[in-house]
Specification:
The complex is a heterodimer of chains A (117) and B (113). Chain A contains no helices and eleven strands. Chain A is mainly beta and 117 residues long. In chain A, strands 2, 4, 5, 6, 9, 10 and 11 form a seven-stranded mixed β-sheet that branches. In chain A, strands 1-3-8-7 form a four-stranded antiparallel β-sheet, with no helix packed on it. Chain B is 0% helix and 54% strand. The radius of gyration of chain B is 14 Å and the shape is globular. The chains are: A mainly beta (117), B mainly beta (113).
Chain lengths: 117, 113
């Protein structure tokens, strides 16, 4: 157990639907990152929050949105789902997103596997 | 934007053989991290390198950070079946996007017992 909790572990839904993925960071970590992992695509950075504020944005589609709540848990909302959105979505947390040595080391959750049919 | 490239994409070895994966960044990195993802698992942090020319060892694994801080390598001596997985390097963004950790596409290592 890495200390980062992601729910649900698996999700099967239909095209056009909307889903919410949830993440609780490791205790003491203030920063949450979301990554998408598709077959042969590696880990694509989506978005990152620090203490409730958005800090960096990657290749996140407009149909996707995220937020980090006061208790530091985060949710990733995926809407108008398409077949190509099927992937493994990882949440990771770190102490601090800055460039200080060791502070931006990521602890990953087990992932949420989304299948869009 | 910043790009992090890894080669090779795949590597199959016989148990006992050595393995090396290389990582190159399009920009100078303040530090570089390495992660391992076992099949069906999630990425797990292995090590972080910070200094130019730094070399760190973890048992049979040797990590190097280039002098220019734009490349890195991971070398495994005498691979074992437990080394199977995908090895990723990752570097923080530069300038205003330094909070973003960009991962390479990884090198999938398979080991034949």
């Amino acid at each position: 157990d890495s200390g980062v909790t992601q729910t649900p572990k698996h999700l099967i839904t239909a095209t056009g639907q909307r889903v919410t993925l949830r993440c609780s960071p490791r205790s003491g970590d203030l920063s949450v990152y979301w990554y998408q992992q598709s077959l042969d695509q590696g880990l694509q950075f989506l978005i990152q929050y620090y203490n409730g504020e958005e800090r960096a944005k990657g290749n996140i589609l407009e149909r996707f949105s995220a937020q980090q709540f006061p208790d530091l848990h985060s949710e990733l909302n995926l809407s108008s789902l398409e077949l190509g959105d099927s992937a493994l979505y990882f949440c990771a947390s770190s102490v601090d997103p800055g460039r200080l040595s060791g502070a931006n080391v990521l602890t990953f959750g087990a992932g949420s596997r989304l299948t869009v049919l | 934007g910043q790009q992090v490239m890894q080669i090779p994409q795949y590597q199959h070895v016989q148990e006992g053989e050595d393995f090396t994966t290389y990582c190159n960044s399009s920009t100078t990195l303040s530090n570089i991290q390495w992660y391992k993802q076992r099949p069906g698992g999630h990425p797990v942090f292995l090590i972080q390198l910070v200094k130019s020319g730094e070399v760190k060892k973890q048992k049979r694994l040797t990590f190097q950070f280039g002098e220019a801080k734009k490349n890195s390598s991971l070398h495994i001596t005498a691979t074992q079946t437990t080394d199977v997985g995908t090895y990723f390097c990752a570097g923080p963004g530069s300038g205003g996007s330094n909070y973003k950790l960009t991962f390479g596409k990884g090198t999938l290592l398979t080991v034949n017992p």
